[in-house]
Write a structure and sequence with these properties.
Elements (H helix, E strand, L loop, with lengths): L32 E3 L7 E3 H6 L3 E4 L2 E4 L5 H7 L1 H7 L1
Antiparallel strand pairs: 1-2, 3-4
Helix pairs in contact: 2-3
């Protein structure tokens, strides 16, 4: 019986292609992502949020939102959400 080698990018020592040192072209860098200040734990792709208006600028900083409902909540009490971020 032959040993399974996994995907073409697996590092398994069983004959798969070693992906160490190669850049993952599909991965986003940390600078491309933000956490929604209203829904803590919700990761937001900054460019996607900006394309649909899901962001606010407050005291010289930009904040990105995970959904349309977060903007009005932020607007009502931005200091609360900034302090928690």
């Amino acid at each position: 019986m032959s040993e399974s080698t996994g995907s073409c990018c697996s590092i398994d020592g069983g004959g798969g292609v070693d992906a160490a040192g190669r850049k993952d072209l599909l991965a986003r860098s940390a600078s491309d992502l933000a956490e929604c200040p209203v829904m803590a734990g919700s990761v937001v792709v900054k460019a996607d949020a900006e394309a649909v208006g899901l962001y606010r600028d407050y005291e010289g900083e930009r904040y990105w939102f995970c959904c349309a409902g977060c903007g009005p909540k932020f607007d009502a009490d931005p200091a609360r959400y900034v302090a928690a971020a």
